[in-house]
Design a protein that fits this description.
Blueprint: H1 2-20, H2 23-50, H3 56-80, E1 85-86, H4 88-101, H5 107-110, E2 129-131, H6 135-138, H7 141-150, E3 156-161, E4 164-170, H8 175-191, H9 200-223, E5 227-231, E6 238-239
Helix pairs in contact: 1-2, 1-3, 4-8, 8-9
């Protein structure tokens, strides 16, 4: 009961404080409320134990119900705070929105659209990009030099077809590099939706298009509050020459 009550009460607090960007206040207020409801929850829990949950039937009903509410509240708590650091899913959503509507979504716009259960799900409108696969699995050694020539000086490599494009990042790549690669992949799929394997000419055409729009795209990202100096790819593999 304590957990459920504190989670439910903290949701609007996370939302309002996150908009102001004051994370220290957010966590301090959240922990204070959590402590308060832990104390209240002890009393409520004792009351439930001596009444509704006194019988086994009551425990079987109340236990799963509170567990469900707990899981739901934790999920909503996670969504309530806009996160302005890029990861694969947020990057894909940003690119998809940019290509469809021409505008850049803010962290607040995306917080309720993130899929917490399947964060690595491919997004077709963003080029079906899969990030973090090992280099030797994503790109044949014979094609590695070709791709480095298509993307000179870049910290990403792309390989695949319109059903799935692998993007591998260099060890020190940041969010800006991931965004550049993601845009190239999305444009490449737009330019050639029928090939089983994207040709170097298609990738080059997409790369040129990306370079045209990227300065404006990056400026809009920074105005919306995104941190492009980091990219959170979890346990994804990176490469180094």
């Amino acid at each position: 009961m304590a957990v459920v009550a504190s989670r439910a009460t903290r949701l609007p607090i996370y939302s309002s404080f996150a908009k102001e960007g004051n994370l220290s206040d957010l966590f301090a207020r959240g922990e204070a409320i959590s402590t308060l409801f832990n104390v209240v929850g002890i009393g409520v829990g004792i009351q439930l134990a001596s009444t509704v949950c006194a019988s086994m039937q009551g425990k079987l009903v109340v236990g799963p119900l509170l567990s469900f509410i707990h899981i739901y509240s934790v999920t909503e708590e996670m969504r309530a705070t806009p996160v302005n650091t890029l990861n694969p899913q947020r990057t894909a959503l940003i690119v998809a929105d940019f290509l469809k509507a021409g505008n850049v979504s803010s962290p607040a716009d995306l917080r309720y659209r993130e899929d917490l259960l399947f964060p690595r799900k491919l997004i077709e409108d963003a080029g079906n990009v899969r990030a973090g696969r090992a280099l030797h699995k994503a790109i044949r050694p014979s094609k590695l030099i070709e791709l480095k020539q298509v993307f000179p000086g870049e910290k990403f490599l792309l390989n695949g077809d319109n059903r799935c494009i692998d993007m591998v990042l260099e060890q020190d790549a940041i969010g800006e590099d991931a965004l550049r690669g993601w845009l190239v992949a999305a444009y490449a799929v737009q330019f050639d939706k029928s090939s089983h394997e994207l040709s170097n000419s298609t990738l080059l055409q997409a790369y040129e298009k990306m370079n045209e729009v990227f300065p404006v795209f990056l400026k809009e990202l920074e105005c919306k509050g995104w941190h492009t100096d980091r990219f959170l790819d979890g346990s994804g593999s990176r490469f180094a020459f």
